[in-house]
DNA sequence: CTGTTAGCGCTTTCAG
DNA sequence: CTGAAAGCGCTAACAG
């Protein structure tokens, strides 16, 4: 029924081994023989059996990419960049690697499940994006699983996630702390003293680091960190909307809102506008990440640009062995402050 | 070195066959035996070998998803929705299906390559999203490939893409024509007569259908379709920006710009603003798709909402056999006109 | 440069 | 309900 390598071999009058060698191009084969084989492949419309070759060779062409939410451009951009670098020459069977994208929804349980599934597929590499949950049994379980993966020869790359101890996983960590510090310092420099902060979910590393940066900037300027001015939420627009209303309730004298990311900032803008406040004349707003839509906000959003695309591309190259991992297996990726129209000097 | 099913069998004192049956849960096994096997699996920390089982069973747990660009929320939302419905119970080995996301960049060549790669992996299903290129040898080649895939038992679902003749592929097509017609009719109803249209790349079905809907509305209102008022570009912001400048150059009397999608519309807004024109007082702007950021544009974007998430979820269920395909293998998914602040009555 | 020979680890009839 | 046995289709030594 289905045509196999043996059929091709028969038709080309060579041994199955030779066909395999031609197809994988990893072994010398006479040009004339190759021609013949390729011709047979074409005539029979033969397609290699991936599972069979993965079984025999004990590796696969699959690369796992774990994201919180692929519908969020933050992850979409990284996933796209990773993908763009995993194809191309260099691997088996033409070097075409396939990306298995797994939506974890930020849940450590699902993350663990997906890692096991990728382990089952004998994935050649796994890239984990976004912040991690840092406490509880899950964090330990994930660390243990990553260790098993690396032990089994799977290259593990953390893209925008802090390193995991006792692991061979390579980490490209975002400097969330530094970026947040710069951003808040910018606001303070403009004269702001009562700044609201809309943080992400509590137990995540990204949330903690950005919040720490914010507080460092406040402390450096001798501004008291009023706990009432920090509200936690999710990393989405709606959360920003609601949190801003809450902040306004708690502190009508607010002159600036710093959001956990750009989506949250957009929600904050909507809430402010609906409350009759002008941006930035009445209240300044700042985001984080610099997603594509941020420059189109009105006024354009002041934010910290994270080189998502570059980081993803680098992660993809490291995952496929086309770039040396950074020394010590850790590189810090810095953000860049983008000052735009949504921040200005406070009123009064 | 690595623990196999045989190891588990030995430890549980049963045959390999029994272990396989327990793991796949598709065959009666005594409760006590199952317990013993599961215990051994746990103790040995056994992970099934995916390629091996795929080879033996001649199917895999992989589902391919083809997108133009995963960084674009239009595709990200669909991909996320598809994913959310392909997991869960119902399949082999716990029914956990993995999504292989392939970025084609809109290129038919890459689309074809990825389809072959998915065929090689013996993917259980393939979902193709977004419009198709409709002419040339590629379209035929893709149709032929889809036929081969369905013949081989792979479920093929077209999500937001018109049906392909002589194929068992199920299509969930967006009513781009109807949506575009409604949108332009809305503008005409407001009193607009000189409407610029920024279309997508020429050879794509989505582009053609949206443009046709626009022209139908013009024709219905007895408005001449001035070719100078249609500009083709890509489906991105930059394209919208440039095309708008061009339209303004060609026709300073323009009172409305209809964009191929929301990203293009955002670019159009930026160009208009920089040209000193107010939206909608001087020029109205409309988009298509209703991506999440569109409601946050200032003014909020009038657009046609496409139920991307619902369509993706349905495609995922059909792909995994959890929902009956629509009668005739084709369903049309309609959009909904969302009238917001970016459109108004024309000046003068 | 090419052929021969063993498996890779699992599923699945077919018996029992 | 359980076991035995026969591959699934390919790769990778090892010879030649």
From TrEMBL, chains A, B:
Pfam families, alphabetized: LacI, Peripla_BP_3
GO MF term set: DNA-binding transcription factor activity; transcription cis-regulatory region binding
Keyword Transcription regulation attached: yes
Residues in coiled coil: none
Domain HTH lacI-type, chain residue ranges per copy: 3-57
Keyword Transcription attached: yes
InterPro entries cross-referenced by the UniProt entry: HTH_LacI (IPR000843), LacI/GalR-like_sensor (IPR046335), Lambda_DNA-bd_dom_sf (IPR010982), Peripla_BP_I (IPR028082)
Keywords assigned: DNA-binding, Transcription, Transcription regulation
Segments traversing the membrane: none
Protein name stated in the entry: LacI family DNA-binding transcriptional regulator
Biological source species: Streptomyces mexicanus
């Amino acid at each position: 029924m289905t045509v196999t390598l043996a059929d091709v071999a028969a038709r080309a009058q060579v041994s199955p081994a030779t066909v395999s060698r031609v197809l994988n191009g990893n072994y010398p084969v006479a040009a004339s023989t190759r021609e013949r084989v390729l011709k047979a492949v074409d005539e029979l419309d033969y397609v290699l059996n991936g599972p069979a070759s993965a079984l025999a060779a004990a590796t696969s062409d699959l690369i796992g990419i774990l994201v919180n939410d692929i519908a969020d451009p933050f992850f979409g951009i990284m996933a796209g960049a990773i993908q763009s670098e995993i194809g191309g020459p260099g691997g088996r069977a033409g070097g075409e690697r396939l990306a298995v994208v797994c939506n974890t929804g930020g849940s450590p349980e699902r993350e663990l499940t997906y890692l096991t599934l990728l382990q089952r597929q004998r994935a050649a590499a796994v890239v984990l994006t976004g912040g991690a949950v840092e406490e509880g049994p899950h964090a330990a379980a994930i660390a243990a699983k990553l260790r098993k993966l690396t032990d089994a020869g799977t290259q593990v790359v953390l893209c925008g996630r802090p390193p995991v101890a006792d692991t061979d996983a390579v980490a490209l960590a975002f400097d969330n702390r530094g970026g947040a510090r710069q951003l808040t310092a910018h606001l303070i420099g403009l004269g702001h003293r009562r700044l609201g902060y809309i943080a992400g979910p509590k137990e995540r590393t990204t949330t903690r680091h950005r919040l720490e940066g914010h507080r460092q900037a406040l402390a450096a300027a001798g501004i008291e960190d009023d706990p009432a001015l920090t509200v936690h939420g999710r990393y989405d627009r709606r959360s920003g909307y609601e949190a801003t209303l809450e902040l306004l309730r708690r502190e009508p004298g607010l002159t600036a809102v710093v959001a956990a990311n750009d989506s949250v900032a957009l929600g904050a803008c909507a809430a402010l506008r609906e409350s009759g406040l002008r941006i930035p004349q009445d209240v300044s707003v700042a985001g984080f990440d610099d997603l594509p839509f941020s420059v189109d906000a009105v006024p354009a959003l002041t934010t910290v640009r994270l080189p998502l695309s570059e980081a993803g591309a680098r992660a993809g190259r490291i995952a496929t062995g086309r770039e040396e991992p950074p020394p010590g297996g850790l590189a810090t990726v810095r953000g860049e402050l983008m000052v735009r129209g949504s921040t200005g000097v406070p009123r009064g």
